[in-house]
Design goal:
Blueprint lengths: L1 E12 L3 H34 L8 H14 L8 H21 L13 E7 L5 E3 L3 E4 L3 E6 L2 H9 L1 E10 L2 E13 L7 E6 L3 E5 L4 E3 L4 H15 L6 H35 L2 E5 L14 H21 L3 E5 L25 E3 L6 E3 H17 L1
Parallel strand pairs: 8-11, 11-12
Antiparallel strand pairs: 1-5, 1-7, 2-6, 3-4, 4-5, 6-7, 8-9, 9-10, 13-14
Helix pairs in contact: 1-2, 1-3, 2-3, 5-6, 6-7
Bound molecules: zinc ion.
Zinc ion (ZN) binds next to loops.
Length: 375
Amino acid sequence: MVKVVKKGLVLELLPDDEMAGILEQNMGNARFIWNQLLSQYNRLRKQFQFHGYPLNANIRNFNMMLKMLKVEFPFLREGESTSQQQVFRDQVQAFNRFFKYGNGYPKFKSRRNPKQSFRIQKNGNNIRVTNKRIRLAKIGYVHYHTSKEYRKLLKNSKINNVTVKRENGKYYAVVNITTNVEELEKTGENIGIDLGFKKLAILSNGKEIEQLDIKKEEEMIKKYQKKLSRKEYMSENYKKVLKTYHKWLNKRNNKIKDKYHKISKKLVTNYDIISMENLNVKGMFKNKKWSPKLQRINLYKLVRMIKYKAEWYGKKFVQINRFYPSSQTCNRCGYQYKDLTLEMRKWTCPLCGITHHRDINAAKNILKEGKKLIS
Ligand SMILES: [Zn+2]
């Protein structure tokens, strides 16, 4: 069966200095608008509150504020307009996440943030991609570099929008397209996955996925971070070190991304049902040795990849409640062994006498529970 899906294709942009300047200008505008809208909204909200009224953060209000901004700052009228509208939509969404889902209050954006971006909505002919260049209205042609597979997809798909971003010293265009994918064949095999830290994951069939080896990259990142902190901000020396620092950051991030793409593709190819625990389980991120924040962000990325690939390729992905005692429960008889400690890698069920490998038993329970949730 063929499915219609959305995909984000990442192209590395190769702007010359002049074009890089134009891209920076557009990112600067997006940041400026974001910050201005936010401070206007904050001010109005306070005034409203003072008089006992709420102020909705909705599209209409923000659209009005953008119009006012353009009167106050005429240079904004020269910029790419769909990307400016995108900024207020993004901000409305950020407020929605704050009001509805308890996410953090939207923050001001700093020019020092190593990640900067702006997004252009497709509108008539304003985005065009040829074999070598991408043309963005009011910006011009930018050379890019990407895989053969992506070039083919770009040629044959409908483009929805483009996000131009700078990350760790490089420019990228993420082209969001609508395309068709062919579902993968069913294999009749299902799998439960227990995420760990010594091993990246243990599967219910006893297979293990090794942790990534990024020690070298991490070491170099730390080394150059230290060097950077001793240089004068944006001096020639600083810029030189920054380049090397970015190089190692990109190396590490690409290594992780490649590996996770491979793992997730393999899982959805081999299995029909993939069951995992919700993250934040068992205090697994409290391990200090593991640069916990990075580790957590990365695992969320892996889970997200498995999830969307399962959807694309017609497989089932299920996440079980994080309070389910997957390690303590005997997968054969269901007995719950409450005295199990973190140090016990093996345990014998006092009820049915079977000896468990801790993580494989957990993975088997995760699969069992996942199947229950699906049916
Ligand atoms: Zn048992």
